From TrEMBL:
<keyword id="KW-0012">Acyltransferase</keyword>
<feature type="domain" description="Gcp-like">
    <location>
        <begin position="23"/>
        <end position="310"/>
    </location>
</feature>
<dbReference type="InterPro" id="IPR017860">
    <property type="entry name" value="Peptidase_M22_CS"/>
</dbReference>
<keyword id="KW-0408">Iron</keyword>
<dbReference type="InterPro" id="IPR022450">
    <property type="entry name" value="TsaD"/>
</dbReference>
<feature type="binding site">
    <location>
        <position position="184"/>
    </location>
    <ligand>
        <name>substrate</name>
    </ligand>
</feature>
<feature type="binding site">
    <location>
        <position position="276"/>
    </location>
    <ligand>
        <name>substrate</name>
    </ligand>
</feature>
<dbReference type="GO" id="GO:0002949">
    <property type="term" value="P:tRNA threonylcarbamoyladenosine modification"/>
</dbReference>
<dbReference type="InterPro" id="IPR043129">
    <property type="entry name" value="ATPase_NBD"/>
</dbReference>
<dbReference type="Pfam" id="PF00814">
    <property type="entry name" value="TsaD"/>
</dbReference>
<comment type="similarity">
    <text>Belongs to the KAE1 / TsaD family.</text>
</comment>
<feature type="binding site">
    <location>
        <position position="114"/>
    </location>
    <ligand>
        <name>Fe cation</name>
    </ligand>
</feature>
<dbReference type="InterPro" id="IPR000905">
    <property type="entry name" value="Gcp-like_dom"/>
</dbReference>
<keyword id="KW-0963">Cytoplasm</keyword>
<dbReference type="GO" id="GO:0005737">
    <property type="term" value="C:cytoplasm"/>
</dbReference>
<keyword id="KW-0819">tRNA processing</keyword>
<keyword id="KW-0479">Metal-binding</keyword>
Amino acid sequence: PLVLGIETSCDETGVGIVRGTTLLADAVASSVDEHARFGGVVPEVASRAHLEAMVPTVQRALDQAGLKASDLDGIAVTAGPGLAGALLVGVSAAKAYAYALGKPLYGVNHLASHICVDQLEHGRLPEPTMALLVSGGHSSLLLTEDITSDVRPLGATIDDAAGEAFDKVARVLGLGFPGGPVVDRMAREGDPEAIRFPRGLTGPRDAEYDFSFSGLKTAVARWVEQKRRAGEQVPVADVAASFQEAVTDVLTRKAVKACRANGVDHLMIGGGVAANSRLRAMAEERCERAGIRLRVPRPGLCTDNGAMVAALGAEMVWRGRPASAIDLSADSSLPVTDVSVPDTSLP
Ligand code: ATP
Ligand code: MG
Ligand code: FE
């Protein structure tokens, strides 16, 4: 099936087109530069930017794929979770295109899309697959039995998401926003063992598959503050590398453990933080040792994009899942277990 996907849950206006598991177009317009001076995404600014970028980005994707809108078999859109106003722009546009073209509409879950995108690179996901979803708003272990209908959370962060921790540590170090890519880059020059930062929720009595990054973030801030107060130079690269090591150590340790305990031999890592070079390398090492097959999409597909939405939409069509009603609404707190928003008016 030929499906166009629209993503507007945060600050990326993404439009992708796929045929089954083949990527045909991936157009992304980001408003990240407009948010940088505020140190984080400003919802109102994001909504307006989506509104301006929507139609040109759809056109760009169609041009890339060399297709007309009438060629499509369906329109998929992120129905949630995300920023309410931002989601609304994408959902409204998708409804308009679906209605005007007479094509089925698929409202899908942003988090499941972060998992499904891997199909564009490595083919259909094995069932079951363990998914480690690490992004700006989420850090979860998801036992994925069927990417269109059965995604079971085993654990999640109890405070900050991994990406949020990267962004906050970057701010403490004065590295700007978003923090992930720049911490990743700085860390390459640093010693990951220079400072032993805490590994949250790894004690014997802690929840096995939950995460906590707020204590780590505070520990980094306190360490840096002490250096500054003592008038010493802050070894930015060492702090970045040591912080990154603590995050990736916990993430990969728990992911491997979850695979083993559930007899799952495929691990996929998705979401913006999956672009992190140290996370990718450490996961590869540890999975290899544990006999687990690792799947991580290329960095450009880990961060928000429309292709991931199209990928999940195509899988919905492929499996004959019900489409959404044309009065589909966005749900800013759509639970991860709701992979799609089916038409509830149907019998
Ligand atoms: P969610 O998917 O939970 O709704 P989101 O869509 O805002 O949140 P993504 O776009 O999936 O999040 O990911 C953005 C996050 O990924 C940011 O916090 C960013 O700092 C982080 N990130 C991006 N690249 C890297 C990297 N190389 N290393 C670490 N973190 C990264
Ligand atoms: Mg973003
Ligand atoms: Fe995301």
